[in-house]
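Lesson 9: reading folded outputs for more than one chain in a single document. The general rule is that every protein is listed as its sequence immediately followed by its structure tokens, and records are never interleaved. Here is the first one.
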Amino acid sequence: MEKNVSMENPITVDDEKGRCVYSAAIARALIHKDHKVIDIKPNRADPVRTVVVFREDDTFNADLEAALTEYGEKKEKRNEQRRLNEKAREVLL
């Protein structure tokens, strides 16, 4: 599991069980899948960044895994495109 989601230690906010998501891209995907946001707060390690706390329901973990997989695939595709672009630049120079 990536560092952008807290999976081991669920937190409780206002008597609701929740999960912290540290990635804006993952949080956005979960919001689009209609998961309820319990709280939004600054990241203690980096106050410029935001932590989004979602209510953990029956479908949350499956949707979270799907969002993480999709994010990883998109990231790998971007990295591959960057590598190809760098090789093309080297050939042109």
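And here is the second record, again sequence then tokens.
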Amino acid sequence: MTAESSKPDPAPVWYRRLILNSISSALCASLPVPLLDEHLLKLLRRRMTRELADDAGTWLSDDEVEILSGTAPRSGWGCVLGVLFAISFKVAAKLIRRVYRTIFFWLLLKDASEAASKTFHEGYLLRRGFEETEGYVDAPSLRSRVEQVCSEVDTRPFQRLFKESLRGVGWLFRHGGRLLLRLRPGRSDSEKRQLVDDEVDEGIVDRLLRQLTADSSYLRSLDRAWEDMSGDADEPPMTPPPASEGVHA
């Protein structure tokens, strides 16, 4: 196989960016610092939502971005309890690491794969929604449709492909540790997002892209689930176009 033929097929810019955001989400979820991981995930998912909407020609207000990305601020006891649970979970994870190293590795990879999966599936379905809205979007309604489809589809195939692309937890440890050292106080939100992106090398993006391309039946099943929810089974699936129509990011 020549060097040229071993390269992954070009993909649409929005699709490659979605995969990058998914892997970046996994890296953020692996950080052992309470609240910092969730803060970074919110920044990434809001940016992803804005990018997908802009690419589809859909204008969104800041409030609509928060609703569609699932990061709208919560208030009351639900928010307080959520914060307390996040801190307690991180502390418990550290204790588990000291006692059961193998279990900790498994939990770390599980958290990372679930975060990547959530970002990928929500982003992919948001893109479908933006394509249908033709410039105008009912944010609460679209968010509800995305959440319902995500609750009904089996995301384990994507998580398996992600883990195979990652090739173990070593990458999370190396790049997560380096990211923590670079996240000095005073960084702006845009700087934080860029630092996360800088830790994701193109090799992992290419591997996951190849895995998803090879298992195209998974995206087709996701398309069908969206069509069933929208009641428009005659609409053609939005599976990314073939290589000849793609563009490198």
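What the second record shows: The longest helix spans residues 101-133.
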